[in-house]
Q: What sequence folds into this?
């Protein structure tokens, strides 16, 4: 099992070459630019931790984390939490050679509606192969999932179509993922520069990586982590936000940091009301 690693495009592996995008990118700090360049000087798959970085520079761990978060915010770094059997093991960092900008995602994506004849054809294919999908929405959503992948990788035969639909069905029925969220996560992952070349079939969702973790679980973790609102990290050393009810039964926002627990009054000294509402919605 590999974790606490740096991964960068292997075409840069044998050189201390830093992509010029970072130096032309406006609005990023000198410190984050320097950290990115230093990370790029290592070989791909270099073992690394925040402690490792902090021990090299005079800045402390908090500063290092802030610069890493800045690189993530500007699209130059992807951070992935690695878990084994539900337990946190470490973090991998994926360096982008140009800024990756994720597109905004809505809870109710409205891709172009497939024709009824196309849907009827899918029902006929499933019927001929004696495959019974209880949830009609899965069949209706199938063309939208297919549209997220390049044409040459899309299912061509009846068997391939059935395999894709059955995979989506298992993700919802067995793995207990919400269908709309599944679509968003697949779209989010396909839009990622790294995964756009390594996630070419919906069937990969239920396959396991080298650590025995289903890719669907990895992709959902990444989606939750990188779809966080910008104001999420305004609370210093934040670990997680929680919802609680005060004695009057009003729902409030609380925060757990590495040093203390904060109630909504404490949080309101840092976040404004709209930001508090945004984080409440994110948690829900």
A:
């Amino acid at each position: 099992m590999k974790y606490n690693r740096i991964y960068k495009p292997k075409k840069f592996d044998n050189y201390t070459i830093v992509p010029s995008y970072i130096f032309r990118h406006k609005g990023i700090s000198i410190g984050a630019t320097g950290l990115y360049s230093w990370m790029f000087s290592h070989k791909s798959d270099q073992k690394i931790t925040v402690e490792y970085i902090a021990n090299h520079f005079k800045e402390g761990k908090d500063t290092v984390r802030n610069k890493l978060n800045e690189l993530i915010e500007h699209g130059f770094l992807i951070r992935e939490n690695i878990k084994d059997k539900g337990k946190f093991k470490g973090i991998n960092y994926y360096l982008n050679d140009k800024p990756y900008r994720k597109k905004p995602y809505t809870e109710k994506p409205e891709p172009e509606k497939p024709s009824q004849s196309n849907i009827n054809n899918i029902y006929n294919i499933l019927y001929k192969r004696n495959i019974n999908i209880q949830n009609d929405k899965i069949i209706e959503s199938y063309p939208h999932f297919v549209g997220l992948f390049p044409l040459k990788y899309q299912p061509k035969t009846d068997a391939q179509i059935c395999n894709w639909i059955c995979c989506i069905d298992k993700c919802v029925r067995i793995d207990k993922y919400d269908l709309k969220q599944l679509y968003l996560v697949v779209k989010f992952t396909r839009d990622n520069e790294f995964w756009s070349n390594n996630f070419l079939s919906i069937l990969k969702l239920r396959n396991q990586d080298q650590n025995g973790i289903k890719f669907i679980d990895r992709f959902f973790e990444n989606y939750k982590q990188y779809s966080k609102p910008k104001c999420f990290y305004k609370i210093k050393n934040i670990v997680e936000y929680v919802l609680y009810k005060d004695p009057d039964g009003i729902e409030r926002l609380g925060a757990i940091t590495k040093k203390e627990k904060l109630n909504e009054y404490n949080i309101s000294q840092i976040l404004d009301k709209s930001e508090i509402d945004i984080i409440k919605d994110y948690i829900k």
